[in-house]
Amino acid sequence: MVSRSYSNLLDLASGASPTFGRERKTLPRVATVAGVLSELDDDNSNSVGSDAPSSISMDRMIIVGNQLPLKSHRSDNGQWSFSWDDDSLLLQLKDGLGEDVEVIYIGCLKEEIHPNEQEDLAQTLLETYKCVPAFITPELFSKFYHGFCKQHLWPLFHYMLPLSPDLGGRFDRSLWQAYVSVNKIFADKVMEVISPDDDFVWVHDYHLMVLPTFLRKRFNRVKLGFFLHSPFPSSEIYRTLPVRDELLRALLNSDLIGFHTFDYARHFLSCCGRMLGLSYQSKRGYIGLEYYGRTVSIKILPVGIHIGQLQSVLNLTGTESKVAELRDQFRGRTVLLGVDDMDIFKGISLKLLAMEQLLIQHPDKRGKVVLVQIANPARGRGKDVQEVQSETTATVSRINETFGRQGYKPVVLIDTPLQFYERIAYYVIAECCLVTAVRDGMNLIPYEYIICRQGNEKLDATLGLNTLTPKKSMLVVSEFVGCSPSLSGAIRVNPWNIDSVAEAMDSALIVSEAEKQLRHEKHYRYVSTHDVAYWARSFLQDLERACRDHLRRRCWGIGFGLGFRVIALDPNFRKLSVDHIVSAYKRTKSRAILLDYDGAMVLPGSISNTANTEAVGTLKSLCRDPKNVVFIVSGKDRKTLVEWFSSCERIGIAAEHGYFLRPNHEADWETCVSVPDFDWKQIAEPVMQLYTETTDGSTIETKESALVWNYQFADPDFGSCQAKELLDHLESVLTNEPVSVKSGQHIVEVKPQGVNKGIIAEYLLSTMRQKGMLPDFVLCIGDDRSDEDMFEVIMSAKDSLSQVAEVFACTVGQKPSKAKYYLEDTTEILRMLQGLANASYQANRNAPAASQRVIFAENK
Q: Where, if anywhere, are coiled coils annotated (predicted)?
């Protein structure tokens, strides 16, 4: 089988004609290769373009998860049979995608398939269920799932640090390599079926966190969403993971990343800021991260349940019979219900201890209240699961021995698998549902409980309820589970506080009937409108929005292995060709050159107190050319700039963002803006000093015309927060002063109104025009927000330029800018300027020296 957009590369190599039909094809068995693939070993290292139009225009969604939404059974004669797993979220979300969206599933089967059967089985599943199985050898799968996923990622994402070998164990590089290998196998499977121009890919959960990198590497414009169903830990926890950067960068190769709660998204954004130096913005309700020219959108929406499935089970005769049985079994008693997996994070033992405390503090509840704890089989394995099972059994035995009597057990532990309809029946008869997990990504048990408590006419009759009477329910929910924020009517608890949980249980029992009805109505309204279809539909809509500019932008990939990323740029924003600008330079006769120094010719934030000798030498060469007028426009003070560029006698200097100006070495300093006094400094400096004392790592830079508060070396989150407060504080106290308060990259600056680098560009162009020297070549280079004023001036200065003028506004690095060109770093800028200087040298080596001026722009 081949993709609809390209054929098998082996067929092309052999000269066979490519086939794009939907007929039976042989699936390559890439997933059956044993062993571990290096994270840097990618057979398809070159990105495949997606310029060819697809042969099918219908929207298609490729859903990728660890397991396929299938149930499998092998008969006695060795034949496999399959059916849909109605409990699988991946299957349920299909309801929200629309009938016209074709869905293909990619994942593993729950059963091991012999290699001899894999090809035929894969073709059958594709044709019958549109499922593409990823076959992984048992050894590799064990390292991938039970190793890296369950020993490293799952505990860490649930806030468990590997402080000892018993707590997850030390980081094992071989398990990480297995994780990467399995993700690459999944990528190969996606490649078999994807039509990158048309298809959307939706990857699910922490098992496949590096898959986005492999997919983005194959197709730069792939439309890719990722949803994390587990918690995302705070940066203090996540930063302990040795492969933290690799996972973050892999996720950022998605177009849309989804989380259940704002807390999880906030932690992810914090990690991106602290470890990768990325900042996010919220625009019109959407959160986005700028990553190499691409905007990675963040989606916050808790998943819902499949209400139709629950209601169909509620209508079963078996459910009605089970409800009647439980009604008789617990007649005269109030049932509290807990439904949890048997693992260390579900807080089962804490719930049991709270029940014990309730019976101790409220003896009147003995004989009247029963806690039914349904313990589902653990998904993981290991010593911790066995300890949870032992502790649970021992605690239940102790409580029942202490408070039980003939015909009454205060705790009923059900640790054998139940049919779905049996579990539903327990929901129906329970007065209160308890969720005391110490950490859980979402937990849909409360949602299921709410729908089941709404019931139907049959169940109302079985329980002897009036159909017209409003339904009621109560929830006690841990504040550490993802569903907690959406259940505003629940009693939220800290599960570690046993007394508090016991008190909440008592409150749930004694609350008035009217209150129970109001809480139930509120929850039912939310759960019934925010089901799994709503969640899937909302995610797809945001994914379409996040990908709408894919075809408009120019994209190419850079980096190796898991460091791969895609650069996306506006078609009009391109890299400055040295050959192109040198050619234009040679053709022109009146040149204006404005350059930034710090950030453009040396690395930003450099602590060196001397000028770059290579940069100064290049400037001197440019100044010798009589056709050049060169200016440095800088945020630094004039004393420093004079010391640095004293050897460039004909260079023009604009200090402190253009407040001070000196056209050449022989001229006097002048100011571009008239400022009567600087009395405002006496107001602003004490305020800045206050924030400096309370923000470790921040400093104040005092200039002749400005004050700058710098928090580059402070904690990024706290520094940013303090900067916002300082900005508001300064704007408040300086309202009546002739100054402007601006925030920049790690700074808050107060300077006289009207001072910006744009006025230097205007001064230079107007001066040249007055002298009859209309520039036919303009070069302006800068690296940050303050340089945008210069870019704006030269890009719109048609009246001050020659009709054939060539304008080069160039920023440093690929980022949103008013400039049309960019160069990657200071090294490329110096190389380009040296190219211009060499051109001047060749043209003027036989000409007599003439006077000229140089103007440079710098902004820090």
A: none
